[in-house]
Amino acid sequence: MNEMEENDHRRLGKELDLFTFSDLVGSGLPLWTPRGTIVYRALDNFIWELRKKAGYERVTIPHITKRDLYDTSGHWEKFATDLFKLNSREGKEYAIKPMNCPHHTQIFARRPFSYREMPQRYAETTMVYRDEQSGELGGLTRVLSITQDDAHVFCRHSQVKEEFLKIWDIVDVFYQTFGFTLRVRLSFRDPNTPEKYLGTPEIWNKAESELREMAEKRGADYFEGLGEAALYGPKLDFMAKNSAGREWQVATIQLDMNLPERFDLTCVNEKGEKERIVMIHAAISGSIERCTAILLEHYAGAFPLWLSPVQVKVIPVRTNHNEYAKEISEMLKEHNVRAELDDADANLGSKVRDAKTSKIPYWIVIGDKEIEGRNITLESRDAGALGQMSKEELVEKLLGEIKNKK
Known about the structure:
Number of helices: 14
Shape: elongated
Largest sheet: 8 strands, mixed
Low-confidence stretches: none
Distance between the termini: 29 Å
Oligomer: single chain
Helix content: 25-40%
C-alpha cells in the first residue's frame, strides 16, 4: 500500500509535469502539458505502427452526431443518461459522441463492397465523452474526455478468427514491450438480464462460442466474466498486472453481430448476393489516459528511454563548458533524440540531482576532459556511470535503444 501511494499516478504526473486539471475547465477533463503530450503521442504512434503493419487505414469523424445515429444503433435508448446532449438553433437533437463505432459504420456504408475488398479495417485515435458522476472521477483513470485508440474491422464471418488473432498479436506485442503478463476475461452477457443487450440469444450464443474456442486454441490464461459484455456483443478483455501487483483491465476486442444488423451492413459475395458482415471493435491501450496512469505507476515514473519526455540531459560543469554542451545537445536533437541543455548558473551536484529527480534516463556531463577529447561522459538513471564515449557511439547507443523500445 505504501508503494502504491508513493507511485500514485496523480502525484507522479504533477511532479513530472505531464498533465494538470483546472477548476475552470472542470474535473475529469485533463490538460496535457508539452511533456505529457510527448508520452501521449508516443503511445499513440506505437499503436499505429503495429496497426499499419496489419493493414489498417486511418479515418476521421466529427465529435457530434444527430440523435438518429444513436437511435439506430440503440445507444440513445440504453445510454441516455451517459450522453452529453445539445440542440441546434433549428431544434435538432445532437449528442457529443460517447463512442465511435456508429460513425464508422457509416464510412463502411458509403458504398457497396465486394467480398474481394473484405475486410475493411478502420483506425482512429480520437476523444469520446461520457457524462460520469463527479464522485466517480479520479486522475486519469476515470475521466469525462477519453482518448480511444479505436479500430473497427468489417469482415465476413469466415474472416473473424484471423482478424481477431491479428489484433491479439498487436495486444501481445504492445504489452510485452512494457513487461506485462496478460490474462484474458471472456466478457459474456448475463443470461438473467437479457434486456440489457441488443440482439437475439442465437446471435449471442454463436458469438460467445467463437470467442471461447479462440481462447482455448490460443492456449490463453482465460476466465469467464458473466455480465461484462458490451451492449452489442461479447468481448475479450485483457487484464495486466503492474509492478505493485495491481491488476487493470487494459485492451479489449469485441465481436459484434448486432450493429451490422441494425445498420444493414453487407458485402457482395461470390454469387453476387448481399451477405451480412460482422464487425470487430478493438482498443489496444483501452484509453490513452488510463494507459498513461497504469504505466506511470508501473514504472514509478521512470519511463523507458523511448517513452521519456526528456531522454537525455546535457550538463556543463561550468559556464566555459556551455558551448560544447550546446553542440552536443543540438547534435542529439538533429538525430531526433529529445535532449535538454541545463546551462543554469548552478553547481554540478544540483544539476545531477535535478536530472535524477526528473527520472531522466541519461545525462551527459561536459567538462575539460570531454572538450579536450571531443567526447562525452554518460551516466544512466538505471545503470549508473557508463564512462566516456565518442559522439558517434553515443548516437548509435541511444538510437538503438529507442528503435528497439528497450
